[in-house]
């Protein structure tokens, strides 16, 4: 007995010693180290970035899949100025931090400065306090963080003829007289640019620097050009075209808004002896507008004339004596030059043409098989002086080439050959949205061949996930179509459409699609960057424009549910990533937007105008704004924004704000409930009070008007989604919604705003079966209707096109619009059943919505901890399932409709349809009860 106690005391003593020493990091308990963390990222997903934008970077990593470690108990990060992490070079060492956080850890050393290069590494400990090896060393190099770093000037062709839109060629020769250790090019433009060194393009980026509110901020690019330079004479050159800065935006009429194109570049060379040399744009540069690219615009296309080619113009061996000295301007203090904070657009994919649809009178129509966004590449026989003409179309109409839905966008490329023979051409300074290409002007002695044409798909350079497959080919097609809609409309800014004379960052479209896009692609940085533009474009009164970047002269103001992107986009990004930074960065924008809405409301009813449930089918008189009352929509969104702000304030520690917004939310909720609905939860049918907006001024008194509220699916969907009915009334509201759906034979009758709410609400209230029915409908209006009529992307309208009647003739009709693609979120949340229980999926539920209509599904949700993978298959009522729970997370398995559940992991077996699952791979079987 005594011995036993002694033994226990002895054991406790040693455990204590081991605990103390390991906790202090003195002795490590195990010589066998755990595998090192992997997938190290900086900020919103950068890997070893150069030209980075944050002086206090954030660090993320994952536990390796093959490691025995299941959870992270602690971590240590080190940042150093040398790759060897010598004691002297350490800039920041967290020491061992007891935390399971593995993402968005902010550097707390001395803020990093422009050009600074640092190295970082991380290690972790598991629950048994076993330590991992250090990760591989990663690096970060900062760009030029502020205007003070720029010694260069804005330069451009002097343009004696006042033709501001003609593409410019710029060049300079410089001498490097010592061996080169390292060189960087910092560069950007007012317009878009393509840079060359010694005759070679230095990157595949396109349309750089992309589109921001140029009057406030222009993003700068950083390139490692060490390999492009040589000791002795070198030549730098750039082509400059109008892009978004100088080109027309929206419609044909705004040519008067002409701002000259300009380039700014700073080439910084470090010699091996430690000295430096900086070459910059200044008065010594030469320029010409006599190059082969004669014109280029986003909407209208590019015109290239090979007769104007200037061989060697971007090399040392070129006579530029007839070029003109540039005009130059100092950098403007009010326009910030800042490192680009997301990947530039690039040539991501190359598609072959799949069919030659017709050839007639020297005009051939090619089919790319896919509605895509980018540029063609042609390689075909041509005749001297005879221009090749390329036109683009999204769909043929009864075999005819159709371009009317491009409106005023000419979307046409021309190439004039300087000699007979095979030419090769790909436009550089434009992009088109198309599936079909009409090629004319080629040498008609030859028969067109498929090999003449291919398509370069352009979008911001992020990864699209291949993470959904089922046994249902149309569902798979829909998933692909949503991905293609995303590709096509994520070219530097999120756009409504990529083809007509619009292509704008409509805020409403963005807020309905942002969450879905995160399941389909690695687009966090893309959105975080756009939010910076949103903040910059917010009015002094808090107004958030309808589209961003905004051009104030085009149209005034905002719209409810569009401006609410200010709260919804950051909130949805936070839900997906758990990065509190996106809330912190945007909180004051949220507050100001709410203040704006408050100002434009009367007695808690918002009167901000809205585009409504945009493009709702079967609306009265076909009105685009749909039938749901604008005040109902505006007030529902007002409530939603306030609730988001309350939760954000709470998370950020602004308790007083949180309290105030919570109170406001309840007031709006109560008012909303009683103002728009009667006791029985029917929409008030009699004339109601509405309020007229007194242009820009505070509303004084309500004005009675005779507007009737029309009952719509969306008028129940929004309040259910935004929690605006009382708890005990929700079932009643759902039954009203179900009745409305039934009335339309279980078809949706929703536009941009109502549609994304359908799957959320139907699943939440136990009607996933109905969601399947709606989703798998073949008849109009439905997603499959578009597929049945040849869609390879998602459309702007439910009836944008039909094989029998061709295009919907409405003036506004794009075949590549992502808004209705929002439903794809349900593929992950509903069909695969992966729902976050905590932001960032640290804890998540797996509750697939099984259906007799599908027999297998395979997919994943990429998270900050790795991929959550789910596969399920049903055969004759028997379920087999595989689940992969990533390291450092926990899953709640919930299979209410499955009996006799057996869960196997590494030969250990448990039973029951509700379980907490630790990281690992699980096999599950059971019997489905439909
Ligand atoms: C059109 C587009 C866009 C929408 C606006 C209101 O320009 O359909 O997607 O947001 O209208």
From TrEMBL:
Residue ranges constituting the Alpha-L-rhamnosidase C-terminal domain according to the UniProt record: 833-907
InterPro entries according to UniProt: 6-hairpin_glycosidase_sf (IPR008928), 6hp_glycosidase-like_sf (IPR012341), Alpha_rhamnosid (IPR016007), Bac_rhamnosid6H (IPR035396), Bac_rhamnosid_C (IPR035398), Bac_rhamnosid_N (IPR013737), Ig-like_fold (IPR013783), Rhamnosid_concanavalin (IPR008902)
Top enzyme category: hydrolase
Catalytic activity from the UniProt record: Hydrolysis of terminal non-reducing alpha-L-rhamnose residues in alpha-L-rhamnosides
Record flagged with keyword Metal-binding: no
One Gene Ontology term from the biological process aspect of the record: carbohydrate metabolic process
Alphabetical UniProt keywords: Hydrolase, Signal
Signal peptide annotation: 1-23
PROSITE patterns referenced in this protein's UniProt entry, alphabetically: PROKAR_LIPOPROTEIN (PS51257)
EC number(s) on file: 3.2.1.40
Protein name, per record: alpha-L-rhamnosidase
Species name: Catenovulum maritimum
